[in-house]
Amino acid sequence: MARQCNESPYVLSCAVRYDLHRPRMRLTGYGIEDRDADEFRHIELAEISLLATPVELRRIAAFLSDAADNMDRMGGDYDHEHLGDRQPGFDDSPHLVVARAR
Question: For 13-45, what is each residue's pLDDT tens digit?
């Protein structure tokens, strides 16, 4: 991603250009009605909302930071991680999965 900014005393404007050949973050998921299905189809999401307590958000942030460290350490061997597998107390929560962008 390249960022170009123009500054004046009154306005800061930035244009962001994405390199379409490089991976970028996407949000995907499936509905709660599909949770127990043998097969389900992920759909791309435009937005997500986390309804959580401050404690839960801090634990999610720690999980995301650890996942980023694991991606750096493992490189191309990194596949994915589940919040519920890494942070106690999220076993019965909706699944939050981090995967490497491809």
Answer: 445 444 555 667 888 887 776 666 667 677 888
Q: What's the CA gap between 21 and 57, in Å, rounded? A: 32
**Positive/negative CA dihedral, 33, 35, 37, 40:** positive
Amino acid, res. 14: C
DSSP state of 73: H
Q: Does the pTM of the predicted model rise above 0.85?
A: no
Q: Which amino acid is it at 67?
A: A
**In which element (H, E) is residue 17 found?**
strand 12-17
Neighbours of 32 (CB within 10 A): 8
**CA-based nearest residue to 30, from 14, 19, 41:** 41
